[in-house]
């Protein structure tokens, strides 16, 4: 909470409870990739030496001599005089090491079709695709837009682009024609790789028609796109424009699997990925090659305790998001992991789908988002309990703070009460995991991402940039450059400086609030724009949401700070009740939950209003759009809903709010 000077005092997330902590079991610790705590201080003493050691696990066509060049902050260069081929590190290297027969991808289509690709097969397909792209004119330094469902060709396309030293810009398949076109224009992509469609929720979700619409838009910028390559997946009717559109399966037959990968400088662009900022225009986050591959592979190995010979890894993220880039494509493949890729949604044909996939492939490491966990909680544990999930040995969480209630459910129901949960904090901009427990070392605290990774220096500072002490809250900063950091915002160096560096000089401002607990562990409190100020007290939306879901009747919640004449802002909560619960009724829910929050956190946090709703507005990546709820809570016209997964949600909620006024 804040005092009048705006400094932040801490208060624990659970009141009246003993702090929970779950140390690793002796067995887990014994076999863990990282089980010597000295790694932290060794890396802290000489982070460049630590990262150089990690980088040397990759195959370089030209070894680097310089590790970090930070002479022109905030523009970092890592391993700049070295050269490597990112795709060859994910593919050819493993084949050469004799593990070509290992399964790289177990693909599970939503309708139930499957495809298995070994490392040798994936390498062969990527080489052919690289030859095809070369003859379509793709050269090092070019940009290729990828607008695809979750199918093997998406991975093949990304790796083929990378193999040629070009950069991909993957646009999530749920984005509109306008969003796709804005990203194509910004990156000046000359080729679009897409599919006729993908399967989602039991239906064909068409993609190619959206590409057609995007390319037909009058945007005021000349169209950069020359060719559109179309993978056949769903066989829906699509129009093919002659001279521009080509079927992948027609073209690919002309190319064999001979392709020598050339080395490119470590700072060669690998991809651009767009993420929304505080203004309307999305930011093209630029990542480069050597540092990015170093940190994604290192964290994938250590945070998930990956044993590539025996583990079956599954990250449920769509490849259209950074988690899909770093922890479906580059990290796992650089590590020679065997992984599952699933095309569809967790509720198709029913809510048992994910658990049946875990049972079928013997998934050992499972990485998903709190929003998905809460959705599964809402449906109830009787669903996962019908499946054999005993193969699971590590669980991961990413995307938002995981509330302790969901954490405990995840561990108990999916992890048999034993699997360590790694709560991984990072961002599109950080490229790879920055703050997370290490499962063989850390005593886990539900709800906290806890500790910066070895070689990462992150901490919490106040508005003036002064480090806060243990037990204090403030803003999260990264104090030293890291290998997989964003290099710039594509085409807009000034915006890069203004957004992340202007606030604290050469320290990176992440835009997240955080606090250090008494042990110095980091608790993420949500975006700072989600921090409310109620009567001069700073309150975290995440914290109140967490308190609400601690209530036995509540499945999910979203909290916003709505303008209030007397208190500045007031807490307004939206909650979804569990479908089976009988504790709360429509009549008493509001009063009961207000009381509950006041009891959990303190009277200052008592919501002004609690609305029981059936759905919350979410982006397609599953993040709750609090901005829209704030509009509704303040009685305004609802703002831009184009990035919502389900645009009807906000109409329902604002109609309700008007009725109840
Ligand atoms: C990887 C990813 C980044 C924002 C970030 C923060 C939130 C992500 C979190 C978390 C608390 C975690 N976030 N992981 N907050 N605990 N474990 O999600 O990237 O889509 O760019 O979002 O997500 O607010 O700033 P991105």
TrEMBL record:
Residues 95-482 form the AMP-dependent synthetase/ligase domain. Residues 1-26 are annotated as: Disordered. Residues 543-623 form the AMP-binding enzyme C-terminal domain. GO terms for cellular component: cytosol. Keywords: Acetylation, ATP-binding, Ligase, Magnesium, Metal-binding, Nucleotide-binding. ATP binds at residues 399-401, 423-428, 512, 527, 538. GO terms for molecular function: acetate-CoA ligase activity; AMP binding; ATP binding; metal ion binding. Its EC number is 6.2.1.1. Pfam families: ACAS_N, AMP-binding, AMP-binding_C. Acetylated. Deacetylation by the SIR2-homolog deacetylase activates the enzyme. Gene3D superfamilies: 3.30.300.30, N-terminal domain of ligase-like. It catalyses: acetate + ATP + CoA = acetyl-CoA + AMP + diphosphate. Mg(2+) binds at residues 549, 551, 554. Residues 39-90 form the Acetyl-coenzyme A synthetase N-terminal domain. GO terms for biological process: acetyl-CoA biosynthetic process from acetate. Catalyzes the conversion of acetate into acetyl-CoA (AcCoA), an essential intermediate at the junction of anabolic and catabolic pathways. AcsA undergoes a two-step reaction. In the first half reaction, AcsA combines acetate with ATP to form acetyl-adenylate (AcAMP) intermediate. In the second half reaction, it can then transfer the acetyl group from AcAMP to the sulfhydryl group of CoA, forming the product AcCoA. Belongs to the ATP-dependent AMP-binding enzyme family. This is Acetyl-coenzyme A synthetase.
């Amino acid at each position: 909470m804040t005092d009048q000077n705006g400094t932040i005092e801490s208060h624990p997330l659970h009141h009246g409870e003993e702090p929970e902590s779950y140390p690793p079991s002796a067995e887990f610790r014994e076999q863990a990739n990282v089980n010597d705590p000295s790694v932290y201080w060794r890396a802290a003493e000489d982070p460049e030496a630590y990262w150089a050691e990690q980088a040397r696990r990759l195959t370089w066509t030209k070894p680097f001599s310089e590790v970090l060049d930070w002479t022109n902050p905030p523009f970092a260069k890592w391993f700049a005089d070295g050269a490597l081929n990112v795709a060859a590190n994910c593919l050819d290297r493993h084949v050469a090491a004799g593990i070509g027969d290992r399964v790289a991808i177990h693909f599970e289509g939503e309708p139930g079709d499957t495809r298995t690709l070994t490392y040798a097969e994936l390498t062969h397909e990527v080489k052919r695709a690289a030859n095809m792209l070369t003859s379509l004119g793709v050269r090092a330094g070019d940009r290729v837009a990828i607008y695809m469902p979750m199918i093997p060709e998406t991975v093949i396309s990304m790796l083929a682009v990378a193999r040629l030293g070009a950069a991909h810009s993957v646009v999530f398949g749920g984005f509109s024609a306008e969003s796709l076109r804005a990203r194509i224009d910004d990156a000046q992509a000359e080729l679009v790789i897409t599919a006729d469609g993908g399967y989602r929720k039991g239906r064909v979700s068409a993609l190619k028609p959206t590409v057609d619409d995007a390319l037909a838009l009058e945007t005021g910028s000349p169209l950069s796109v020359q060719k559109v390559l179309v993978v056949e997946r769903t066989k829906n009717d699509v129009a093919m424009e002659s001279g521009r559109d080509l079927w992948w399966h027609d073209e690919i037959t002309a190319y064999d699997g001979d392709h020598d990968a050339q080395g490119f400088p470590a700072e060669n662009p690998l991809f651009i990925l767009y993420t929304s900022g505080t203004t309307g225009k999305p930011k093209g986050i630029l990542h480069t090659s050597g540092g990015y591959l170093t940190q994604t592979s290192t964290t994938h190995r250590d945070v998930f305790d990956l044993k590539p010979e025996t583990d079956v890894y599954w990250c449920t993220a769509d490849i259209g998001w950074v988690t899909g880039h770093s922890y479906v494509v580059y990290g796992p493949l650089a590590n020679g992991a065997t992984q599952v890729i699933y095309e569809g949604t967790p509720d198709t044909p029913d809510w048992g789908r994910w658990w049946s996939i875990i049972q079928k492939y013997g998934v050992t490491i499972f990485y998903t988002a709190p929003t998905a966990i809460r959705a599964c909680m809402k449906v109830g544990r009787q669903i996962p309990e019908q499946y054999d999930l005993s193969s699971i040995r590590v669980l991961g969480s990413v995307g938002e703070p995981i509330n302790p209630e969901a954490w405990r459910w995840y561990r108990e129901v999916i992890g048999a009460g034993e699997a360590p949960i790694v709560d991984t904090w990072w961002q599109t901009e950080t490229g790879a995991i920055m703050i997370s427990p290490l499962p063989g070392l850390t005593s886990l605290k539900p709800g906290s991402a806890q500790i910066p990774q070895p070689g990462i220096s992150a901490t919490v500072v106040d508005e003036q940039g002064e480090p806060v002490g243990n037990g204090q809250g403030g803003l999260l900063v990264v104090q030293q450059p890291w290998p997989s950091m964003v290099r710039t915002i594509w085409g807009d160096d000034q915006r890069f400086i203004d957004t992340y560096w202007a606030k604290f000089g050469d320290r990176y401002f992440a835009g997240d609030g955080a606090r250090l607990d008494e042990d110095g562990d980091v608790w993420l409190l949500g975006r700072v724009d989600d921090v409310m100020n109620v009567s001069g007290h700073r309150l975290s939306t995440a914290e109140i949401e967490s308190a609400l879901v601690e209530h036995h009747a509540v499945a999910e919640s979203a909290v916003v700070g709505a303008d209030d004449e007397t208190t500045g802002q007031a807490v307004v909560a939206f909650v979804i009740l569990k479908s089976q619960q009988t504790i709360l009724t429509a009549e008493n829910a509001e009063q009961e939950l207000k009381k509950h929050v006041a009891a959990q956190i303190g009277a200052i946090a008592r919501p002004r209003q609690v609305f029981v709703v059936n759905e919350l507005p979410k982006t397609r990546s599953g993040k709750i759009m609090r901005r829209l709820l704030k509009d509704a809570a303040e009685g305004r016209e609802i703002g831009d809903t184009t990035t919502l997964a389900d645009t009807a949600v906000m109409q329902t909620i604002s109609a309700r709010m008007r009725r109840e006024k």
